[in-house]
Amino acid sequence: MSLSLALNNALSGLRVNQSALAITSTNLANLNNPNYSRKVLVQETQVIAGIGAGVTADTIQRSVNTLLQRDFREENTRLSGIKTENDYLSRIQQMFGTVANKNALGDLVNKFATSLENIGNNPEISSNHFSAVNDANQLASRIRDMANTVQQERIRADAEISQALQDMKVQMGIIAEINGTIPGQKAQGLPTGDLEDKRDQAISSLAQYVDIQYFQTDRGQINVLTGSGNTLVSGAYTAELSFRQTTYITANETYPTALDGIHFNAGGNPTTANDITAGLTGGKLAALFEARDVTLPSVTNQLDLMSAKLRDAVNLAHNRGANTPLGKGTAASDPATLLSSRSFANTAQAMTLSDDVNMVLLDANGVMVGGMGTIVAGATTPAAVQGQINAFLGANGTAQFDANGRLEIKLNSNVRFAMKDAGTVANQGDSVVQYDANLDGTTENYSGFSNFFGLNDFYVTPELTAATPAVAGQGLQNGISTSFRVRSDIVADPSTISRGKMTGTPPVLQLGSGNNEVALELAAAFEKNEVFDSITNGPSRSTTTLAGYAGVMLSYSATTAQASNNALQFQSTLTGDLQVKMQNESGVNMDEELANMVVFQNAYNAAARVIQITGEMFDTVIELA
């Protein structure tokens, strides 16, 4: 071996070990950087004309286990989705309250029932009426607050979808930009490890939002697709993803009719064909859509069902009562004494009464004024009923339909209008009204003449899109829990709560101040079992009391929240273990790097010593010459 070759070998050793020391120092500098992968200098023997000519630094490689990295990203996608789901379920669970703290919905139902029993036991005590109205108001307010909280959560989910999409676009831009840079870097022989680390970080961030699949091309670029195959990034190209955020959401607004989804390369023209929402099956984005369009609407449906059952049970009993308000005048600007909650689009539509309905006028003491009138059983129409009531009132008031098709009864001062059905004892005295309320060609049965019209309702549920209340068999029921409330004139004057039925033998009827039949029936309504239909993504069909169903909702919410919490704990542990394994393989180990540093230092010193000795030998040769 010539001295020149020995010198060249030593110089190559100096250069390579110097580079190795530089890479080691970079590794140590990023010791605590979780997004940095350890770099390794790949060394190869340099051969010239078949003779070893030292060493050369081939490339700088990253220490990354791509299979482990792929597994981690897949599990992290699941973790992100479960975490998002758990956030929403936990807030809903907090909204329902807890039985231990006596702030659950069932507690308020029982409190209202107790106050109604107090009226039944002591109807003459005015404070009992105030307490009952206060408890009824508190219950209605809690239902409204819960229902509106659900809609606020849907608005939150919609806003988070919009923000998630913006974050995705940022990460996709980073991936595309690095994809465009790496081929040039490689062509110039420049290291790309740090760029690849940054790209890996962007891919991992993107994987939190949506399930992805990806592959690396022969140019070192990574193309990213959704789990369903839509290309998000291809080389330096990024797909266009669009979404229209909705700042106000009501219960009857759903996807895709009113709420938007994710549109892929829509070009400003979002359609069903370019909507890829259904293809998002994992990650935060899918969980947000699930919360907005499935989980939260299910809670609204539960509250609506609870509201409808509570409304119908209380109103049925309350409409049997005769303690209606005193007249407030017949001027057009005066509020109606009685205003039905049912709206009639066609007042000539057929209806049938199973039994007579007797009408009387009462004075302030509940004593009958004048004679009794009767709406005879049999076939009739809403218009015919209005005409009969109007004829009976005469100079004492008027009965007419308002602009919304609601029966409106106005009275002169100092008289009250009351009705008493002449139904059978088996039907609790109610006359059954047969009427096709939903216009499906089939008549439905409604118990109680006043209850059918809604002339003396206790609870009202105005629709979201109209001024008229939603009642059984008519009107939009979606979202009635957001407007569930006690009738305004009862709130203004709690003494107008119905507490007793008309007594006596027709044609002589009266209402005594101590009559408590209706008050007791109101309280009994809370002890009666009702059939609650199953809710999609909610509780199964059950037969229970009103308070019992409040407990069913609470139990279902607690169970689903706990199941989600258990899944979150498991997934967090699994993802954490994969992350530790990945860090162990790709992260920087200080002990290993320090050991390598000593090796590179010794190798550098040895190469320097070879150069020194080779130099001395060159000097000797020159002297001998």
Question: Could you give the distance between the termini?
Answer: 20 Å
Overall structural class, as computed from helix and strand content, comes to alpha+beta
Write down the overall mean pLDDT. Answer: 89
The radius of gyration computed from the alpha-carbon positions, rounded to a whole number of angstroms, is 40 Å
Percent of sequence in beta strands? 15-25%
Q: How would you portray this structure in words?
A:
By secondary structure, this protein is an alpha+beta fold. Among the domains are: 3-63 and 597-624, no CATH class; 68-87 and 155-297, no CATH class. It is built from twelve helices and 24 strands. It has helices spanning 3-29, 66-96, 105-121, 126-187, 193-209, 283-319, 382-393, 449-453, 488-492, 517-524, 546-586, 590-624; strands at 39-48, 51-62, 212-216, 222-226, 231-234, 237-238, 241-242, 263-264, 338-343, 351-353, 357-362, 368-375, 378-380, 397-401, 406-411, 416-421, 432-435, 444-447, 459-460, 485-486, 503-505, 508-510, 530-532, 542-544. It has a four-stranded antiparallel beta sheet, covered by helices on one side. Strands 13-10-17-18 form a four-stranded antiparallel beta sheet. The protein has a three-stranded antiparallel beta sheet with strand order 9-15-14. Strand 21 (503-505) and strand 22 form a beta hairpin. The relative contact order is 0.14.
